[in-house]
Amino acid sequence: MKPIIATPSATKEYVSKYQCMAKKGYGQNFLIEPGIVDKIARYAVTSNHCAVIEIGPGIGALTQFLCRYAKRVIAYEIDERLPQVLEDSLSDCDNFSLVMEDFLNVDVSSVVADWNQKGYDVVVAANLPYYITTPILFKLFESRAPIQAITVMMQKEVADRFHAGVNSADYNALSVITQYRCEVTPIMNVPRNVFMPKPKVDSRVLQFRLKEPRLNVEEEKLFALIKACFRQRRKTILNNFGEYLGNNKEKAREILGQADIDPVRRAQNITLEEFLRLYEVSL
Ligand code: SAM
Predict the structure, then answer these.
(1) What is this structure's pTM?
(2) Taking CA 29 as the corner, what is the angle to CA 101 and CA 122, rounded to the nearest 5 degrees?
(3) pLDDT in tens, 196-231
């Protein structure tokens, strides 16, 4: 068996052998702590017939452990320097395949359907490139593909917004929209010193499980309403919602009354269920 990739010495060796210094523009920070990588992989692989879609394998630190626990690992990478590294670092992983494609261009539904047809459960795992964390997650959510679980690492501050609860400082439109679509579970905190190069901030691993879409909800309308209610955080829901209704405060007051929401409250104190009620009565 090949040596573990997620160590400082192995990472230095691959980087120097293949002259692949981490590129900031691709959001590259390689994991160098095998215990953490092992734990992420164990959480990510949710059944014993899983195909894992990995976004950004880098030099293979997480991939190596995913290959250990999953039946198949299909990784999407953008950096043209990395295929030759992966060919070496993962040479003993015969369940691994690499696709050189910007993940933002991937047709997620058809990829997931293909692997489902072959009899696999599909999950997603990644140490995400920080510069496109939200676009990647929204692409996965919006695909509506039957993905069993999405287990990903991101900057702690971004993770805080995805799973923030009502009444907390981080609770915003992104939190409400994400929690409408998914169950969000924090898995673990990851300190900055287990990456090479060391980033300026700590990270956190979250797991997202997509919920069944609710019938009779036009999501674009619901999300526009939620975003409008958070537009100016200091303003009351009456003011923000009134602006959304074309500066019609009277109508806003009436609809808020029907939804049983006190007009002097602020968006950060309003639950997902209350936003759904507001959406329903404002139809
Ligand atoms: N998985 C490795 C690890 O944990 O050590 C590397 C993670 S690094 C934070 C992010 C990886 O995503 C890099 O390998 C980078 O080249 C890749 N990447 C960046 N943008 C990408 C994109 N649009 N599509 C696919 N991969 C991308």
Answers:
(1) 0.96
(2) 45
(3) 999 999 999 999 999 998 989 999 999 999 999 999
- The 10s digit of each residue's pLDDT in 128-175 is 999 999 999 999 999 999 999 999 999 999 999 999 999 999 999 999
> Could you give the C-alpha distances from 201 to 52, 136, 191, 198, in angstroms and in order?
27, 20, 8, 9
Give the closest residue (by CA) to ligand 1 atom 14: 58
- Closest residue by Cα to atom 11, ligand 1, is 56
DSSP 8-state code for residue 199? P
Q: Is 207 exposed, middle or buried (0-12, 13-18, 19+ CB in 10 A)?
A: buried
Which residue's alpha carbon is nearest to atom 2 within ligand 1?
Answer: 58
The atom of ligand 1 lying closest to the CA of 31 is: 5
Mutate to test the pocket of ligand 1, among 14, 28, 137, 140 (most ligand atoms within 8 A of CB): 28
